[in-house]
Amino acid sequence: MLFHLKVKPQTPDRVAATWLQGMEIACAGLSVLNQCERVSYNYLDMEDNYVRLAKLAVRRAVTGGEVDEGELEELRGALPESPRGVFVTLKKDGMLRGCIGTYHPSTDSLAGEILRNGSSAALDDPRFPSVSPDELEDISISVDVLSEPEECARDELNPNKYGILLEKGMRSGLLLPDLDGVESVDEQIDITKRKAGIPPGDENYTVKRFTVERHHGEKPVGK
Q: Are 165 and 174 in contact (CB under 8 A)?
């Protein structure tokens, strides 16, 4: 499932969600990507192969240029083979410029997910125009790798440690962990229910939790 996330550094009151392409979601408002700003657990400051691969994907998508196939294969081989859910986030001057993510992998490898979502974050986020080549020197990037969501009980949630996924039939809503203004499990569930379109009084849904590992680029995408 593919998510487009738009975040303004505000409070959770501003959440809105729109279903796109079946189970595709566009989220506006909510500091959900202060999610992409504040996910602090397993935070990796060093610019690593996850970030290098995402940068390659963005540069290739934006410029249409050829890539170094040797570098591409080197980076593919350096990452774990097993597929994972991934969010790729672009920021310009500290403001969100694009974010595409999947919590259920849509490709057969972690590298494939980063390449796909990196390209889509640059070109296909419906809330922003496509990134232009002259912006690349001003855009920073981060890669969030999600654990497989696991079904859990309400008392096993912790909004500072775990993101949550609520599912009811064909409806689902996701909220990353450690967000400004989300201090309790009740708040976390209420926000996610609104995103999923689950009525406030409806308690008949499945709760899953997941963790996030963040990889942060220290240099702009163009460097």
A: yes
pLDDT in tens, 83-97: 999 999 999 998 999
pLDDT tens, position by position, 41-52:
444 445 789 999
3-class DSSP state for residue 132?
coil
CA 132 vs CA 55, 94, 187: distances in Å: 14, 17, 38
**CATH 3.30.700.20 for domain 2-147+212-216:** yes
Superfamily name and number for 150-209? Hypothetical protein ph0010; domain 2 (3.30.1490.150)
pTM of the entire structure?
0.72
Cβ 83 vs Cβ 55: under 8 Å: no
CA-CA distance, 110 to 116, in Å (whole number)? 10
